[in-house]
Structure formats: C-alpha cells, structure tokens
Design a protein that fits this description.
Number of strands of chain A: 0
Helix content of chain A: over 70%
CATH architecture of the largest domain in chain A: Orthogonal Bundle
Structural class of chain A: mainly alpha
Number of domains of chain A: 2
CATH class of the largest domain in chain A: Mainly Alpha
CATH topology of the largest domain in chain A: Tetracycline Repressor, domain 2
Strand content of chain A: under 5%
Radius of gyration of chain A: 19 Å
Largest sheet of chain A: none
Distance between the termini of chain A: 64 Å
Order of helices and strands of chain A: HHHHHHHHHH
Oligomer: homotetramer
Chain lengths: 191, 191, 191, 191
DNA sequence: TATGAATGAGAATTCATTCAT
DNA sequence: AATGAATGAATTCTCATTCAT
C-alpha cells in the first residue's frame, strides 16, 4: 500500500556512482554526492545498500556480470573455435571501448581491498564459460597450452592498457588498428 | 625550505607508504600510520613532504624512475634489436615479479586523479629511451608498425595482469612459463 | 483528529516499547523497532502517537495509573491503619516483583527530561490517595511526622533498589525475605 | 618534545559530561557539546576516550571510585560498629546532597546497557570494603541477618530517592530531617 | 629538525518523521 | 486507517594538517 520500492533507483545509484568514480576516483566518492547525482536523499541510498562498501561490491558484481554476459553474447558452440575466439575478442574490445568507465571500474577494483573475498569469488565464477571455451582450444591444440591465468592475462592485459591510454589521451582506434590488435592477440596465443 | 638532506627518512617513508598501500589499499592509507610504520612522528612527515598528495606523487616518480632505469640497465646500442628486446623484456618481467608491490603501485596510480598532470608527464618522459628503441624496431621493420601506445599496451598489459593474478593467487612462474610469456610477447609484435 | 479507537494497537505499541526499553535501554529505542515489535508499519505508530515523546509520556502515565490503582486495590477505610499499610506495602512489592520492567520504566523516566512537566504533575496526582492515607497515619501518631517526600522515599526506595538488583542478578525473594523487608519498612517509619 | 598530554583535560571532559547529562539527560548528550563545554575541539575528545561509550563507562567508574572512597573516609576499625555505621551513613548522605549530579549519574547508569559488564563488575568491587563492614555487623548480631543486596537496597534506596526528589523539587534538608533519616535507616536494620 | 597533542572540517550513517499510495 | 519508502537534519567519528614545545 505504501510507495512500492522503486527498483530503477538501484540503476540510478549505480549510474551515479560510476560517473563520480570516473570523475574523481574512488577516493573522492562521497555518499552524499552519489545521492545527489542519483536524484535522491542520502538516507535513501541506505535503503538500497547497507553501506558504501556494499554499494561498491554490488556495483562491481553487476558490472562484471553484464560485461561478461555481453561478451559471451552470440556464442555458438557450433561455430569453429577460431571464429568464436574472434567474435568474443571483438565483443570484449568493443564493449571496453564503448563503456570504458565500466570496464575500468572493474579493473580498478578487481584487486582492491574494497572487494570482499566473496565478491572476488563470485566475479571469478562469471568467467567460467569463457575459461571453459579457452580450455577447449588448448585441448584441441589450437591455442598453446599454458596456465589459464597467464592466458587470460595475455588476452585481457593489452585491452585494459589500451583503454586506459585511450581514456587519458582521448585517442580513437581505427578499424585497422583494432584488427591489428586482434591479430597480435591471436598470434600471441595460437599455434 | 629546501628538501632536508636525510635520505634515510625519505626512504623509510616511501617504504612504509608502499607497505601500507599494499596491505590495505590506498583508501586506507593514513598519514598517522605511515609515520608510525616509518618510525617517526606525524609531524615529521610534513617536514619531508608538504602533504599527502605530494608524498604520493613523489613516491610514484621515484618508483617509476627506479623501475625504468633498472629495466634499461645493460642496454647496449651495439646489440641486435632482438637481443636487446629480449633483455629489456626479461628485465621488466623479473623486476615486476621481484617487486610486485612497487610495480602495482605505479600501475594503480598511473591513471588516477591523485597524480598531477606534471607527474604523469614526468613519468611518461622516463619511458622515452624505451620508446626510441621500439620506434627504431618499427622503422627497421623488425616489429610491426603501430601507434606507440598500442605497442606499449600490448607489451606491458600482460605483465601487469600476470603480477596482479600472481599477487592474489600466490602463483610462482616457472622458467618455462616465463619463456612462454616472452614468446607470446615477441610473436604478437614481430613480423 | 481524535484518538483512534483501536485499543488493541495501543496496547501492542506499549508492550513493544516496554520490551525494547528493557532490552536495550531507552537510548536504543527506535520507532522503527517499536513498530516492528508491535506488528505494524512505522507510519501506523504516528496515527496513534504524535511523536516519540508523546508515546513515552503516555506510556508513563498509563503505567503509573495502572500501578497506582492496583496498589490501592482492596483499600478499605474501615480497616486499621496498620493493616492497610501492610496491605498496600505488599501490594506494591508484589506488583514490583511481578512486573519489574513496568516498575523500572516508571522509575527510570520519572526524573528524566523526556517527561513533560504536565506528565510529572499528572503522575504525582495519582499518588494523592496514598499520600492522604499516609498523612492520616502521621496525624494519628502511628507513623512518625516527616515531609511526605522523605516518607515516600523511605518506603519506595528500598523496593526500587531491590528490583533493580533482582533484575541484574536474577535473584528470587523468599516469603521470609519479603516479610523481613516489610518489617524494615515498618520499623523505620512507625513510632 | 611535543605538547605533553594534558591530564587536566580528562577532568574537564568529565565535568562537562556531567553537567550536560544533568541538564538534558543522557539522551541529549552530544559529543560536540561535551567538547565545547570542555573547551576543546571534538577531535580532542577522541584522543582521551575512544568513543562515547568509553567516555561514559570511565566517567561512571571514576565517580563511583571517588564516591566510595570518600564515603569510607575516616573509617577506623577501632571505632564501634554503631559509630562507624553512623559515620559512613552520614558521609554518604552528605556526599549525595553535596553532589547530587554525580550521585544520580551513577544511579542512573548503574543498571543501564551503556555500561559494559566489565564496568559493572569493577563498580561492584569498589563496594567490597563497605560490604565487609556490614557483614561484620550481621555476624556480631548488631544488624539483622539478610542477603547483602537487600541490606544495601534498604540503606541506599531512601537516599537515592531523596536526592531525586530534592533535585526536582529544590528542597533543602534540615539537620533534624537528616537525623530523622538516619534514625529510620538504623531502626530498619538494627536489632 | 622532531614531536605528537590538538584541531575542525568533512564523511558515513542513523532515525524520527512525512507522505504518496 | 495502514503502509513502508523516502527524506534530510543531526550525530558520531576520522584524519590530514598545524603548531606549541
């Protein structure tokens, strides 16, 4: 009978948090600012998130979830490994370029003490489909055998670094450059 | 007031800062804790560093300086490009593995609003010898032509990601794995 | 707006308040908790009580009323002073032992700034029959002459202290001990 | 070499706290007000007391300590039981009348959830000399045998109630009334 | 220089009360 | 009447920085 709990508020809070973290870094993130940017009273934040840490952790998870599922979008087990690899890699790149703040938020916090162990764990779990796919590639001798962590680092590291550089230097990648990046990624890991 | 001479204290402060940032993230870095860990009074910190931001900026530059010069150690213009590339790459990897906290401090802050523009600029300048070297490789058609930012991202990204993973998961790289990483790096950028 | 009729709800609120005050002290008394413990929404509280202070004041008066009238129960002007004194004193003791939370609530708030002057006054008025009775005893030279405040303090003080001790130490009084307490009370004030 | 920690600040804080609790009850006690009343910055409070609860607990203990030792002042094992009893009782009464805020602070908090178990325990310990004395009186058959809690309640209850009444009604006790109170106390417990 | 007590602006969080449903 | 989400003023506590010694 009362005002129903407004679920769009969560999105507004996430959006505001992201925007503010991007603008002034995590350190400068003030709950009061988040509330204002999200168009609500401070206290309202605390209806949806128990405290600042929880907000950060849930935002992280939400972003990681969305990012991961969008990367896996269009995954078709019937396609060849190489085709799928290319598709996933480009998904990830375009996602990163289109929403660098989201990507960098994840990157920035992934190894930080803000995140609880549980959050890190849950975040890792989301990568399982990707890991399974890559594992398969190694078994089929399409890509080289190596510990999964190294493989992921090899593939994601350059993308992260690129969007960081792009962020601070306002560069724009041409299609040819993207293609070049992909080829580097592929050459580095393929037999 | 000129910078006091006591380099011992400065080192102690840097060391303490690094240790604390590693332990509880930058967010939890308190000047009082730095002072205690460095074995001095809070006030003393402010004799050596005007404020917290200056401390962070100077530590960043000091680390970047040291890291860069150690990476370039043994650089000999007479060596072949490939040999030098291998030497520099391994220098960088070993450096990163030996002192991950230092490396991650740099990485973590490099794109952060804690750093002033000037600091970022000075940090970039230190990379010039490396950049000149890589430029040369591109001109000699030994490595592929691409914007320098992409090249650096391609080479450094995987190393950063690897040490992050190594930090949180306590992995140790075998010599064969290191060699594998190098080969991926080389294959990705060489003609 | 006249007081709504639903006495059930008022009782539930009183009961919940009492329970919570006992558990975590007045300081920790939150309206939201009262509402939950009373099985209703926060807003509903405010239909029955204008605000927290009013709730406290009305609860106080209600308790004092009930306590006083139950103490006076069975008062019969035809009985001897001594018999009546004994009856009233035991009524009060048994009441206090049976419902210490209620008694302590009154005690605890009686001299507190939560209560308005009006409430205190109304509370005092309820004691008038008792005061008249004691006054009579002094006039008849059955009990010693002294200011009424001193007399009341002498009679009630030990009972309050006893139930406080009993509360925190979980003691149980034997009939002999109760009798002993009565004798002390009587000896202290009787000629 | 720095400003030495100023121990008189603790007294200033205690004094300010007491004054404010008396004025507006514990509920209205704001740390900012305490600081202002004590003539220092808010932060300074937290140098001397970790938080509000600790402040309350330590003040309680300090008051109980001082009150108890002053009550026992002049205790001489060579004196007769009755003389000592009278001396202690009057010490307690005069103390209570002279510093009712201090006494009521103790009374008010003694059974409250603000106090930790440890504090309550420590507070109880301070009464041991008094308890030993009274025990002795019971053994010598000078005062009646009963559980110590009842005896203490009987003796202290009337005093507490009296100062509460005195506080709110601004009464002043005459010497004859004090003597009357003592006699009631004595008659109630003596054989 | 060195110290560490003192400062006080600022941040997170709470909670009595309101109000849209 | 009843609900409970929303509000935002108020409060506790923190911590970078200053300054008396």
């Amino acid at each position: 009978m009362a005002r129903p709990k407004d679920e769009t508020k969560i999105d507004a809070i996430f959006e505001a948090t992201l925007k503010l973290v991007q603008k002034s870094g995590f350190n400068g993130l003030k709950m009061a600012d988040v509330a204002k940017a999200a168009g609500m009273a401070t206290g309202t934040l605390y209806i949806y998130f128990k405290n600042k840490d929880v907000l950060i952790n849930e935002l992280f998870l939400s972003l990681k979830q969305s990012k991961t599922s969008r990367m896996m979008a269009g995954y078709d087990a019937a396609d060849s490994f190489a085709d799928t690899f290319r598709k996933l890699w480009f998904n990830y790149l375009e996602l990163s370029l289109a929403e660098p703040e989201r990507m960098l938020f994840i990157e920035q916090f992934a190894h930080t003490s803000f995140l609880t162990k549980k959050t890190k764990q849950q975040g890792d779990q989301m990568l399982e489909p990707l890991i399974a796919f890559l594992e398969q590639g190694m078994q089929k001798k399409i890509i080289r055998k190596m510990p999964m962590d190294l493989l992921l680092s090899q593939l994601m590291g350059p993308i992260y670094e690129t969007i960081k550089a792009q962020q601070s230097k306002k560069l724009v990648l041409t299609p040819a450059q993207k293609q070049g990046m992909f080829e580097m990624a592929w050459r580095s890991v393929a037999f």
